[in-house]
Amino acid sequence: SAVTRMIDMGVEPYLLSSALVGVVAQRLVRTICPNCKTYFRPPPEMLERYNWQHLSNVRLATGRGCSECFDSGYKGRIGIHEILTVDAALQSLIMKNPSRDVLNQYAKDRGLKTLYADGLEHVLKGETTLEEVTRVISN
């Protein structure tokens, strides 16, 4: 996380905890070309892998490629985001110089929506593809 990186860079935890208001991570993902967008039903293994089996009528989208998108299947970009607000409990935690695992558990316990989870929401809306979200998050 960004907090861990700042601590690793030598920023004193007491300075960080008093000055930090929030941490935002963002990435741009390519959107599916509206001109050549097609829909498909994902196989059961994919529904299970992404824990989508409880959703009804899941349809994912992809771009076939056309002259509008130069045969890429993508046209335009949207942002995916992860936002962590610093509260008193997190300030206290930062003062203890926590490990990455402790910070990740704190964020998970608070219901932080990760970049990947936000990306998957855009996949379910038919705005981008699983391949694009995975490509952007992995880099």
The number of helices is: 7
Helix content: 40-55%
The secondary-structure class comes to: alpha+beta
Adjacency order of strands in the biggest sheet:
1-4
Order of helices and strands: HHEEHEEHHHH
Would you kindly provide a written description of the structure presented here, covering whatever features stand out?
The chain has helices spanning 2-8, 13-19, 44-49, 88-95, 100-109, 115-124, 130-138, and strands spanning 22-32, 37-40, 60-63, 74-85. It has 139 residues and is an alpha+beta fold. The mean pLDDT is 89.
Brief rundown of the structure:
The protein is built from 7 helices and 4 strands; from the N terminus they run H-H-E-E-H-E-E-H-H-H-H. Strands 1-4 form a two-stranded antiparallel ribbon. Strands 2-3 form a two-stranded antiparallel ribbon.
Task: Give the SSE map.
Elements: H1 2-8, H2 13-19, E1 22-32, E2 37-40, H3 44-49, E3 60-63, E4 74-85, H4 88-95, H5 100-109, H6 115-124, H7 130-138
Features:
139 residues; alpha+beta; two-stranded antiparallel sheet; 4 strands; elongated
